[in-house]
Amino acid sequence: MSINPKQKRLLIPNGETVSSTNHEYKIVSLLGSGGFGHVYKVQQIDTKQFYALKTEDVDIDSRLNRLKVEATVLSACGKATYRQHFLRLVDRGVTSKFKFIVMPIVAWSLDKIRKDVLNGAQFS
């Protein structure tokens, strides 16, 4: 693992595996970086399915525990009547260096749609 010098956050190299209590995931590529961590394209070892794995450093201030909030929201949305409109929480876990959630991979992020499709315009 290496540290991204601009953001001082851990980068997981392609090919490395990340384990939860339920599954193992192989890092395929870095999809993007945000304010609190990175998002990777991963392949679940046993099923060969591709997912997005989102990380957050373990030592982040607990008041800013955004990944935990996101996992809670995704879990609640998975139980909602209109759940087909939301991403589902596939898995979650923690290592000595980072916490992570696993979710289905989607075509584009809202940021990419805003930049590329809406030419930088704001959503209303």
TrEMBL record:
The keyword ATP-binding applies. One of its GO terms (molecular function) is ATP binding. The keyword Ubl conjugation does not apply. It comes from the Eukaryota. Residues 25-124 form the Protein kinase domain. InterPro entries: Kinase-like_dom_sf, Prot_kinase_dom, Protein_kinase_ATP_BS. Gene3D superfamilies: Phosphorylase Kinase, domain 1 (3.30.200.20). ATP binds at residue 54. PROSITE patterns: PROTEIN_KINASE_ATP (PS00107), PROTEIN_KINASE_DOM (PS50011). Keywords: ATP-binding, Nucleotide-binding. This is Protein kinase domain-containing protein.
